[in-house]
């Protein structure tokens, strides 16, 4: 019973953090045209069909990394948002194709789509599920390429 009451007390605090993150993400999206952009380099062979990643900066502060990864059996589109050099939000969409794109059976309409939205505070996942830690690791790896 005490645990349940404790959770009820924490819920408004967590919702407040999530609303603040949503506000920062929205602000970043409205300012994209004003930000300096840097295309990130990828190792050859890191994706079978290629990868494109772009970092967005307000002055010298990293705000967003977009990461599009294309493979023969699917693609992943990820947006990683930062505030004060820390990941605050990740939106990751994956498409698993029904067959390799070179196969006659390939039909994009038959792809399986998964979408994840992950919220972070002080380098900890606060909402989003089990794949949030993987998204954080991917964001940190990409962010290391811009610093």
Describe the structure in your own words:
It is built from 2 helices and 7 strands, in the order H-E-E-E-E-E-E-E-H. A 7-stranded antiparallel sheet has the order 1-2-3-4-5-6-7. The chain has one domain (2-144). Residues 4-10 have low confidence and may be disordered. It is globular, with a radius of gyration of 18 Å. The protein has 147 residues and is an alpha+beta fold. A hairpin with a 2-residue loop joins strand 4 and strand 5.
How many strands in all? 7
- Estimated share of beta-strand residues: 35-45%
The portion of residues assigned to helices is 25-40%
Secondary-structure-based class equals alpha+beta
Q: Give the termini distance in whole angstroms.
A: 47 Å
Largest sheet strand order: 1-2-3-4-5-6-7
Cα radius of gyration in angstroms: 18 Å
Mean pLDDT: 88
- Our count of domains comes out at 1
Low-confidence blocks of residues: 4-10
Tally of separate helices: 2
Question: Biggest sheet, open or closed, and with what strands and sense?
Answer: 7 strands, antiparallel
Shape: globular
- The topology string of helices and strands comes to HEEEEEEEH
